[in-house]
Amino acid sequence: MYFRLGCLAIVPSILWLAAAPVHGDETKDDAKDISSSFSARILAVTDTILNKHIDPPARQAMILAGTKALYQANNRRIPKGLSRRVSELATTEQLTDYLDGVRGEFKSMPNMEMILTQGMFAGIPGGATLINTEGDKVNEQLRKNRYVGTGIALGMSQPDQTPQILKVFYDGPAWKAGIKAKDLILEIEGQSTTKKNLRQIVEELRGEAGEDVGVVVRQPDSEESRKLTITRGRVFIPSVEGVRELPEGKWQFSIDSASEIALIRFKSFGPSTLHELRKAAEQLRDKDIRGVILDLRLGGGLLHDTILVADSLLDGGVIGHIQSLDAERKHEAQPGELFPNLPIAVLVAKQTSSGNVFLAAALQDNQRAVVVGEPTAGNTYVRSFVDIPGRNDKIVMATAIMLRGDKTPLVVRRSGSPQRVTPPPIHGINSKKRPGFIMPDHVVANDNIEGRRQKKDAILAKAIEVLTSSTEEDGVSAKKKRRTTVER
Amino acid sequence: MIRIRLFILTLLLTACCLPASGAEFQSRLRRPIAIAVSSDGKWLFAANRDSGSISIVDLPGGTVAKEIDVGGRTSDLVAIDDSRLLVLDEQNHQLVLYSGGGVDWKVASRLDVAQYPVCLKVDRAAQRCFISSLWSQTVTIIDLPEIDPSKAAGDLQPDLAVTKELMLPFECRELCLASEGTKLMVAGAFNSSLAVIDTDTLELIAIKQLPGHNIGGLAMSGDGKRVLISQQHLNPLAQSTQDDVHWGNMLSNLLVSIRLDEVCDNERDLLPSRIPFQLGEPGNAAGDPGPILVAPAGKMVVVLSGVGEIALGGDNDFNDLKRISVGRRPTAVTSTAKGRIYVANTFSDSISVIDAENAKEIDRISLGPLPELNLAQRGEELFFDSRLSHDGWMSCHSCHTEGHTNGQLNDNLSDGTFGAPKRVLSLLGVGETGPWAWNGRVKKLEEQVSNSIEKTMHGTSPGKEQVAALVAYLKTLPAAPAASMKIRENAAKIERGQQLFRSLECQRCHTPPTYTSSQAYDVGLTDAVGNKKFNPPSLRGVGRRKSFFHDGRATSLPAVLGEHQHQLPRNLSKSELDDLLHFLRSL
Questions:
Q1: What are the backbone angles phi and psi of residue B70, rounded to the nearest 5°?
Q2: Tens digits of pLDDT across chain A (488 residues)
Q3: What Cα–Cα distance (Å) separates residue A170 from each residue in A239, A251, B53?
Q4: Which residues of B touch A272 (CB under 8 A)?
């Protein structure tokens, strides 16, 4: 957990509702829970999943999967009749007795509870993770772009094992204090950093807003060390990026090789994303832009903010539906759109997931954008943080599914292992709306190893080609007929 | 009523042309809301709303030279030339023409105009003036007479007469002349409607609807090709969370530029050419943008009324606006050719003088001593103050425009949940229509006020005194005037409609005289998160609403009773429906 925070810069890009891996330390924290025994804790987790998951497996199936994981982790053969035995557990007493037995059998095993829990989660549609309260606080700050800290990304410089600053966030506390990228941290609050690991360093740098931390740093190729004071505060981590970061903290969005095309990469959807996108649009307004590419291949984020972005790009129309256990909500865009009159291409790939899928589908269905890339993987859910009664942690899991405007689901719901949904074959698909997938308008089988080695981005290249070759008429015909007046 | 008004008028006429006092000005609330400068740049005339007076400021001296009482409540002022001033009196529903010059002015003529006149524009040839009247939804066109300065003050000059009245489908406020004065644009006072009037034929040629609400300023760009609009946008998809407020996702303050030719053409969509600029930024928002001034030498000013600032920039480049602090609630701006900008600070009773070149306030001229404010007056100041909200994004007025409603949907916690945006309710007459919130759970208006500031605007928790002041102000707001201004002509229908209202038992929930009641009822409507019980909104002013029910699902009053059959025990005949609608519109 702490190491991940050390690499703060990179974390937001891989968060979808900020899932963090189950950690050994967290299991120890769980043991501090006063009221609950081992079996009660496990049953609380299964109860929460049964109550709140959009498509939960049976309790017995979760417990069986967890038990099997313990046998496998111990390199032991799974006993004959285990499945039958678990299937026949019916009452809370029987389940408690069974779990107490499992605990007795594996009590010498380190991280036993964690392995059992992870085993249970592996079979749940959309997966699940546990997150403790402290981790959630930091994750929430990140998700909502309210992270309080020094505003740096840390690594260890290799030969001499000195903490090194990989990135200084523009206009953040460290930036304002005069910290430069590549600075080696020699001292924190008068204490030498040698022989400390990254986790300790991060812990020493972390603190509340308004607090000062004194550091001594130097550039790797310089002998001169600098003594600086950083006042911790809110760090803004951009969620929208362009082609290249300019020195004044802005991004260049126009592509070098095709300057009339702008590239906007979404790292993660959070509360600041709409604002950043509007600013990008203002920045591009004076440029002679003929088309905009939105890269939705990586990242996840908050669904609410993804919907706000979809709204901003659509001039009316249905964005899609969110189906939860309690309700199905239709989301509709308001009149007015960013980049009016400009064609948009959206980049998707196998790994495009969660809200990005929802956004790409909304833009495709409303004929606002052409979709370029690979078919998406079809295993994506809306995930939420759900409190587990009696425990001080939360479970992150699928609580809703996304539907397109015409109610085609954006997930393939099937029993068994949901992580291994086969994308449809690229050829021979005649429907863009096959349930669960986004079929690009221009399919590009990219991201093969060869392409990556040559650092060629075939999907981006195709999108540039599509946008530059589209004539004026194409651009107009791709747009839906506009209303002359807007009814409210 | 009219006879009474004429009587008051006659009384006033005998007294009002005398100067209020000499060099010593009395302590009273003035609240300047409109300003004009004489062509030689020597005099500034400020129309004071609350004192119903005109302050004449000696600009070189930086002091008030004289104050003239107009009477009533002034709402706008234009200096036609150096010998004629036009003033609107919102309270007496009159246009007043003054003749004179310098500090000496006398009433030349008064004219009754459509009720609640709020904005005044004079064409470039100074031959015609245009008046928007808020609640009567009317634009009045008046041909201006030549003045005979030899006539005595009491002698009304008879040739000030209404040329034409045009009814609009919305309550209107801001006006702007375009295309060499051949077009007049009229903006909605609450929602973002725009109407265009051809000033040659005096016909309505276009009506458009823009996204957003609260148009506070309307002006033409320097090249005359684009319309500049300052306004706000409340996003029903956003929620009143700290995050959505902080990043401007929920409510944004905009300077919008659209093409004039598209505004004037009913067949064309103006959205493709609409360019919105975000005013303010996270951490330093620009709540309640007001009037726009496109000044000589390529300068442009947007008044940021809610945060007590103006934003100054080039009339072609809005990306780099320089913000300058002025007094409290600036609401009017004008300039001289010499690069001076003047701003009326309504709640400071002062005029800010800005050096446009150096973007600095160089003087602030007091219009007279301020008395101690009573509770409701302090409440009014708070109501329009965006600094009550997180980072200055919005004031109470941003959603409850002038105490009424912006007609939009907002997803806030006043119904206890996110996910079901609700219609913003009018606060006109709100002091009598408890309980509050859509579910009727809030029994004290004080509680509702605190909730709005803390949970929707995300401001710091207001003190008891602030809440009491806001509540006192809200209680001074009368219900909106009835939509139907022809009550006498339709008396028989209204009477039959009222009987029907009783016999259909509408009054069980919508109980006179406030036409609401204290319970929450399940009337077969469910919101997006499953709430079923709602407190009935008051029906006073119901004929003015553009959308109905909690989520605005019905878009006309006939649809409420027709398509939605709202709580009707039986089908109504066509004439019964007509009677009932006439009654409702008379409320």
A1: -90, -35
A2: 222 222 232 222 222 332 223 333 333 344 444 346 899 999 999 999 999 999 999 999 999 999 999 999 999 999 999 999 999 999 999 999 999 999 999 988 888 999 999 999 998 998 899 887 766 777 777 777 777 788 888 888 877 788 999 888 888 899 889 999 899 999 999 999 988 888 888 888 888 888 999 999 999 999 999 999 999 988 888 899 999 988 777 899 999 888 899 999 999 999 999 999 999 999 998 888 999 999 999 878 899 999 999 999 999 999 999 999 988 999 999 999 999 989 999 999 988 888 999 999 999 999 999 999 999 888 789 998 899 988 888 899 999 999 999 999 998 875 444 444 455 555 544 455 567 889 999 999 765 555 555 667 899 999 999 999 865 444 444 444 433 333 33
A3: 13, 11, 53
A4: 247, 282
Q: What are phi and psi of B61, to 5 degrees?
A: -80, -20
ipTM value: 0.91
Nearest CA in chain B to A479: B272
Residue A52: which of A389, A398, A303 has the closest Cα?
A: A398
What pTM does this model have? 0.87
**Which residue of A144, A146, A336 is in closest CB contact with B271?**
A336
CA distance A371 to A344: 9
A-B contacts (CB, under 8 Å) = 82
B562–chain A Cβ distance below 8 A for any pair: no
Answer whether B277 sits within 8 Å of A304, measured CB to CB.
Answer: no
Residue A301 per-residue DSSP state = B
CB contact under 8 A, A271 and B243: yes
Q: Closest chain B residue to A330 measured between Cα atoms?
A: B528
| Contacts of A58 by beta carbon, 8 Å cutoff, 6+ apart | none
For B183-241, the DSSP string reads EEEEEESSEEEEEEEETTTTEEEEEEEEEEEEEEEEEE-TTSSEEEEEEEEE-TTSBSS
Distance, CA of B539 to CA of B285 (rounded, Å): 35
Residue type, position A202, single letter? V
Q: Is the Cβ pair B271, A146 closer than 8 Å?
A: no
CB < 8 Å & 24+ apart, contacts of B60-63: B62/B353, B62/B363, B62/B365, B63/B365
Residues in contact with B199: Cβ distance below 8 Å, sequence separation at least 6, in sequence order: B123, B128, B130, B141, B177, B181, B182, B183, B184
**Residues B271, A337: C-beta atoms closer than 8 Å:** yes
CB neighbour list of residue B511: distance below 8 Å, 6 or more residues apart: B517
Asked if A343 and A470 touch (Cβ cutoff 8 Å), the reply is yes
Amino acid letter, A389: P
Chain A positions in Cβ-Cβ contact with residue B211 (cut-off 8 Å): 334-336, 486
Task: Tell me the pLDDT tens digit for each residue of A351-410.
Answer: 888 899 999 999 999 999 999 999 988 878 999 889 998 888 889 999 999 999 999 999
Question: Hey, CA dihedral for B258, B262, B265, B270, is it positive or negative?
Answer: negative
**Shortest CA gap A153–chain B (Å):** 24
